Amino acid sequence: MNIRQLLETRVEQAMETAGAAKGSPAVIKPSGRPEFGDYQANGIMGAAKKLKMNPRQLATSVLEHLDLDGIAATVEIAGPGFINIHLSDEWLSTQAEHTLKDKSLNIESSTPSQTIVIDYSGPNLAKEMHVGHLRSTIIGDVVTRTLKFLGHNVIPQNHVGDWGTQFGMLLAHMKSLMDNMDSNDELSMQLADLESFYRDAKNRFDNEEGFADIARDYVVKLQSGDAECYALWQQFVEVSLSHCDAVYERLGVLLTRDDLMPESAYNDDLPQVVEDLKQAGLITENDGAQCVFLEEFKGRDDTLLPAIVQKSDGGYLYATSDLAALRYRHNTLHADRMLYFVDARQSTHLAQVYAISKKAGFVPESTSLEHMAFGTMMGQNGKPFATRTGGTVKLVDLLEEAEQRAFDLVSEKNPDLGEAARREIAKLVGVGAVKYADLSKNRTSDYIFNWETMLSFEGNTAPYLQYAHARIRSIFAKAGDVDTSADIAIKAPSEHQLALTLMRFSEALEIVEKDGTPNTLCNYLFELAGNFMTFYEACPILKDDVPVEDRSSRLQLAQLTANTLKTGLGLLGIEAPERM
Ligand SMILES: NC(=[NH2+])NCCC[C@H](N)C(=O)O
């Protein structure tokens, strides 16, 4: 049980004994200011209202029954009926000691352990991976790592777009190039830059006489399983996937080929999906297309918004594969929760497929379907992030630049380190900075990409946290022999605050688990690093005049801080170098 949960249990017991309705929530929150204690219970007012009782009177009665012996130093009533709880130094010391010794960081596995499908990354293979997929990939990665860490059975699903009409155009272009080539190398060269390959194909599609017909013919052939066409498609997809692999590797995310569950995988199931929707009475034909109209989806003019599942030419759509995927994730993967890390602009699409899948009984009511939406990454000009000419920024180039900038920075800070070591550190700092800049923002809002702030050693950035960690490690490098079984004895307010924050790691993870918000973890780590800096200033460790017990105790707190920072950064998919 973390501290919040422990206080919640105790306060709720007391509330019940004091006469509050069973199940009245204690609403335990960390206090905003130290003078209000470490935590406050805000639930008394609500419970009193239900009882038609004076809240301060109820609070007084709750205090009489509240058993926090040995846990809290003082507990008091404040304002209209808040209860402020000041934890005792001794108790915090013991908690911190346990946490260090059992290496748990005070984290317990969540109960019950759930099966959680996480749909993230999902690039379209027809094109180069772009920044929108960066967001999905890294945010999804953090939530995957965190849920695994908390003991859930996590099943990543990389729903890549490898199917659809664009492939007709690409394959037609590819085939005609191959027919005019002497070797396969030339083709590989063309495919090395998927962005321009796509542009060339599109150009021919729009302008070249007869090309569009060939392209359409390829779509039909592909969908009917024509062997030659299929082989061509496979070759294209393989090249595109290897580009993704390179990006994943560079980003240091967990995704592998095993997590691929592309749109094409659902192809054979699509006719059945439409058939089952018909059986469920959900299909309406509209202009020859098979559509589902649901009451809750209305357009601007109040007309119902269709979800099209089959076009008039018989082709299936994005929504159809998503419905098939939902069913698969329930029937075969047995998901309790399905989390979709997908651009906010697809929220209507997802809301529609969620609603349809429940109405059609593809997924039971009890399965939680959650769109973890994210906003757009913007350039300095306030428009969606792009190259100067308005093109897509290749992720590989972006990461390359990050590394170079980090290298300059590390060299400036640490000129004595050998070049190889600086390169190594720059890699971790560069990619860490790009990831952290994104992860630390509230995922639902748009944000502006800015090299200077993300690579700064001050403020809520990856380099700051990595540096804080390296700095603690350097204390240990200088400290010599350390008594790893020493007692922790909290005395100073800054020690109290640091220990308290250390014990609150699991509270931050609890929120990531529920809401899929990596920024909660970022903010927590930032606060922790800040608390450490304050502590280190007020409570020196290595100075000569520090008594031995104080030195040992403080080293233990430093150790716990380093462990927590490293683990936290690890959950963010960011490495913490030993020195910087
Ligand atoms: N199940 C899903 N629809 N996942 C999201 C896939 C993202 C899609 N390929 C895109 O680039 O927009």
Give an overview in words.
There is one protein chain. With 580 residues, this protein is of the alpha/beta class. Among the domains are: 3-87, Gyrase A, domain 2, CATH 3.30.1360.70; 166-264, no CATH class; 395-571, Isoleucyl-tRNA Synthetase, Domain 1, CATH 1.10.730. 53% of the residues lie in helices and 11% in strands. It has helices at 3-17, 44-51, 55-65, 89-101, 131-149, 166-179, 184-192, 194-207, 211-223, 227-251, 270-279, 318-331, 347-359, 395-413, 419-439, 451-454, 462-479, 493-503, 505-515, 518-538, 548-571, and strands at residues 28-30, 39-41, 72-78, 82-87, 115-119, 153-157, 283-286, 289-298, 304-310, 337-340, 368-371, 377-378, 447-448. The longest helix is centred in the middle third of the chain and has 25 residues, at 227-251. It is globular and about 85 Å long. It starts with a helix and ends in a 9-residue tail after the last helix. Arginine is lined by residues 119, 122, 124, 159, 161, 322, 325, 340, 342.
CATH superfamily of the domain at 395-571: Isoleucyl-tRNA Synthetase, Domain 1
| Helix proportion range | 40-55%
What is the CA-based Rg, rounded? 28 Å
β content, as a range?
5-15%
Largest sheet: 4 strands, antiparallel
Parts with pLDDT < 50 across at least 5 consecutive residues: none
Protein structure class: alpha/beta
CATH class of the domain at 395-571: Mainly Alpha
CATH topology of the domain at 395-571: Isoleucyl-tRNA Synthetase, Domain 1
Q: Count of DSSP helices?
A: 21
